[in-house]
Amino acid sequence: MEHLLGQEWEIVPAGGATGEAFIALKDKEQKLFLKRNTSPFLAVLSAEGIVPKLVWTKRLENGDVITAQHWLNGRELSHQEMNEEQVAKLLQKIHKSEPLLSMLKRLGKSPLRPESILTQIETSLDQDVVKIPAVNQAVAFLQNHILLVECDELVVCHGDVNHNNWLISDEEALFLIDWDGAIIADPAIDLGVLLHSYIPKKDWRAWLGRYGRTLDAGLEMRMKWHVIAQALSSIQWHKDKNRLEEMDRLVQHIHSILQDDQES
Fold it and tell me: What UniProt keywords are attached to this protein's entry (predicted)?
């Protein structure tokens, strides 16, 4: 990787699960974020101002593609900051972006439908997980309500709108990073996780107003369905990784959502 930039650059791993990300440093002042084999989707995200600016893309002799982005000094958003207007506005911009949708389609992405999500969950949960009462109730909820969550509104969804994927620079510019899980799907996938995770229910209507839509029973059902579906997938993932404390937290989260459904 060093030969791409010259000997005056120091390249160090940036961490992360894939081991494909690096930081390039020069004279303690110049700094780039490098990544190997990033999707061409990154160029459109950069052009739309959703991720830090793409500086260059280079193809190596072995076929690998290296991208370099401006390194921005900044921080992730706090839980409380997820309630701010700029978060709603950026998510609205993403969901309304035709260039993003067009590029994902060109890359061969097909829309992710509720039927596919439910099938994946039903086939991936092991017997020990299914025996957990809240999990069993949650799967039944998905099965019983699947006809209520059909949606023709298909947009580019990030798929993991956790607060640590929202980066605000020292100049107050907001970005949503880590797009490896991007999908074409119901916007309720992103909206549901964000609202259920960070926004008090009494503030949902106001937050969605900043995003540009009205809270109604149909949207609320779609958000609830997708939040439960994502939580079930995460429960199995954490069990497989022996992260049992996080798994138990998600089971309690599902239980509280289902209780709220029964009480409302």
Answer: Transferase
pLDDT tens digits, 130-175: 999 999 999 999 999 999 999 999 999 999 999 999 999 999 999 9
| Catalytic residue, candidates 27, 64, 126, 160 | 160
Please report which residue ranges of the chain form alpha helices under DSSP H.
41-47, 85-96, 98-106, 114-124, 127-130, 133-145, 188-198, 204-211, 217-240, 244-263
**251: domain CATH number?**
3.90.1200.10
Backbone φ/ψ region at 83: left (φ over 0), alpha (ψ -120 to 50), beta: alpha
| Per-residue b or e along 100-125, where b marks 16 or more CB atoms closer than 10 Å to that residue's CB | bbebbeeeebeebbbeebbeebeeeb
Residue 4 has pLDDT above 80, yes or no: no
Asked if residues 34 and 22 have their Cβ atoms less than 8 Å apart, the reply is yes
Residues 165-200: pLDDT tens digits?
Answer: 999 999 999 999 999 899 999 999 999 999 999 999
CB half-sphere exposure, 146, CA atoms < 13 A = 14
Of 21, 39, 71, at which residue does a domain stop? 71
261 carries an active-site annotation: no
Q: Domain containing 9: what range?
A: 2-71
pLDDT tens digits, 55-99: 888 887 788 888 999 888 899 999 999 999 999 999 999 999 999
- Name the maximum alpha-carbon separation found in the chain: 64
Three-state secondary structure readout of 223-248? HHHHHHHHHHHHHHHHHHCCCHHHHH
